[in-house]
Amino acid sequence: MSSVKMSTNIFWQDCPIGKLDRQKLLNQKGCVVWITGLSGSGKSTLACTLGRELHSRGKLSYILDGDNLRHGLNKDLGFKVEDRAENIRRVGEVAKLFSDAGLICIASLISPYRRDRESCRALLPDASFIEVFMNIPLEVCEARDAKGLYKLARAGKIKGFTGIDDPYEPPQNCEIQIELKDGVCPSPSDMAGQVVSYLEENGFLHE
Length: 207
Ligand SMILES: Nc1ncnc2c1ncn2[C@@H]1O[C@H](COP(=O)(O)OS(=O)(=O)O)[C@@H](OP(=O)(O)O)[C@H]1O
Ligand SMILES: Nc1ncnc2c1ncn2[C@@H]1O[C@H](COP(=O)(O)OP(=O)(O)O)[C@@H](O)[C@H]1O
Known about the structure:
Elements: H1 19-26, E1 31-36, H2 43-56, E2 61-65, H3 66-69, H4 81-100, E3 104-108, H5 114-123, E4 129-135, H6 138-144, H7 149-154, E5 176-179, H8 188-201
Parallel strand pairs: 1-3, 1-4, 2-3, 4-5
């Protein structure tokens, strides 16, 4: 947790134009699509494919990718339990702002601990936190090893790597699950299609 002291004597400032006005302008409903899963499970691939699909339908989205945010907003954080918790907390707060702006905010982070994800869910209005679980087996993620990190973790050169020597707690009640079918991973466009269908069926693609 941050060592900065809590502010005191602060008041909430209401503004005349609110979320409903912005949603009307955009003809969509603000929400957070929170993609969680192991490194290499396809979180960024899904986020980018979904962002492109929404864009082609005239829907405004923005991607918050764990790796990218660690180059800026979260560059002071590592991978200890408390650092990951602070990472998820900050991204949850930023996602809440994007959602309030009326955007479909796509957050893709390992977010391995259930408690941290549930805290983010609790920040969002009812039903507007949509948890997508990349239920891709470790063996598949490790075989991909796009960044060579699993190899380093197996060799003991990275400590506390999720799935190797740090836990991943799968969601118990996620809205969407991406999984293998007959041992094959759905294509990026099928994964994105699954999320678009959910957004459509639940009224997020109209105000
Ligand atoms: N120890 C350890 N464990 C897991 N991942 C590690 C670690 N060290 C570096 N990386 C790289 O950091 C990316 C994950 O960052 P996140 O912000 O999504 O992680 S977390 O949600 O705070 O757990 C992750 O990116 P993805 O592969 O896109 O998931 C890795 O590239
Ligand atoms: N649906 C998929 N089918 C096949 N390969 C995939 C799929 N999704 C992702 N990949 C590949 O797996 C690797 C890791 O994907 P990535 O999106 O970077 O995962 P993450 O963001 O979870 O670390 C990349 O090489 C990517 O091309």
